[in-house]
Design goal:
L-arginine/glycine Amidinotransferase, Chain A, three-stranded mixed beta sheet, transferase, transferase activity
Length: 311
């Protein structure tokens, strides 16, 4: 597999947000069953999250990933550490800005991030869908969608945060085919974001097939993924609950790496790890405080699929 092809699916650069006032968000707990209570004092939680982002950014940088690290010193954006929900970037110089389900999360959008992208990368256009929030239409970026950049497919589990009409509009603008399905956890509750149940790499896909409630649809999606030549690594409900699906393939100085949390790696079976290591180096990041907010490493990394400007 050439490095050129690898970079189509696996970005070489990411945006990260380092929060100064992080906390699990009470405004999003109603439909995010991955959130958990953190009983520490607010300052202790914030300090721990700050350290986790700082260490993770340094590990990514050491692996040869370009990290654009932004500070969030605000007190009204507890989920800002998850920037992949409010914007995404695409080959050809395209950027999308998304409508967010929770009003508490709409303040996360930042013009300085978009301006950095324009300065450092070749941006042709920015399509801003955020005004659709006023119509109760939502699509939370690459949390709501898991994108196959090679085959041009957008996989999306139905939820409050994924509007089917908005998904169709995005796919028309950005040249993806939508594949929509119902996905539930082991208790039958809808899974709020697609990227906690699946992650697509260049030569593999990690997916909790059993979360797809319709049997025929489950088989169809598995066959579709396998038809691309990818090896499918099937994840259990327990592994999904430990964020094993919330991983992202990146392209570092020595080739592809799989960024995932230390908790997620611990949840994987040795045979699953052996399969993945055929295609990528494992890069575990320890983010236990941030995971209490209901997201993990994939949610923390907004991949940059843009051509860099000559410096």
């Amino acid at each position: 597999m050439s490095s050129k092809l690898l970079s189509v699916q696996a970005p070489k650069s990411v945006v990260m947000i380092r929060p100064h006032r992080f906390s699990p968000n009470p405004a999003t707990v109603s439909d995010n069953t991955f959130q958990s209570l953190d009983e520490r004092k607010a300052d202790a939680i914030s300090s721990a999250a700050y350290r986790e982002v700082t260490t993770a950014a340094a590990q990514l940088d050491a692996a040869g990933i370009t990290v654009h690290l932004f500070e969030d010193e605000g007190v009204e954006t507890p989920d800002s550490v998850f920037p992949n929900n409010w914007f995404s970037t695409h080959a050809g110089g395209h950027v999308a800005i998304y409508p967010m389900y929770s009003p508490s999360r709409r303040r996360e959008r930042r013009t300085d991030v978009i301006e950095m992208l324009k300065q450092r990368y070749r941006v042709q256009d920015v399509i801003d869908y955020s005004g659709l929030e006023m119509d109760d239409v939502f699509l939370e970026g690459t949390g709501a969608m898991v994108l196959d950049h090679v085959e041009r497919v957008a996989y999306a589990a139905k939820s409050n945060r994924t509007d089917a009409v908005m998904l169709e509009r995005f796919c028309t603008h950005f040249n993806f085919e939508p594949v929509v399905f119902d996905a539930v956890d082991y208790q039958g509750r809808p899974i709020y974001h697609t990227n906690v149940l699946m992650g697509i790499g260049t030569q593999f896909c990690m997916i909790g097939l059993n979360t797809i409630s319709d049997t025929a649809r489950r088989i169809e999606i598995q066959e579709r993924l396998e038809s691309t030549g990818r090896t499918v690594v099937d994840l259990t409900y327990g592994q999904i609950a430990n964020f094993a699906g919330n991983a992202i393939e990146l392209f570092g100085k020595n080739g592809p790496v799989l960024a995932l949390s230390a908790r997620a790696l611990k949840a994987l079976q040795p045979k699953q790890i052996a399969v993945l290591e055929q295609f990528t180096d494992m890069l575990p990041l320890d983010v236990p405080t941030i995971e209490r907010a209901g997201g993990s490493v994939r949610c923390m990394l907004a991949g940059i699929h843009l051509a860099a400007r000559a410096r």
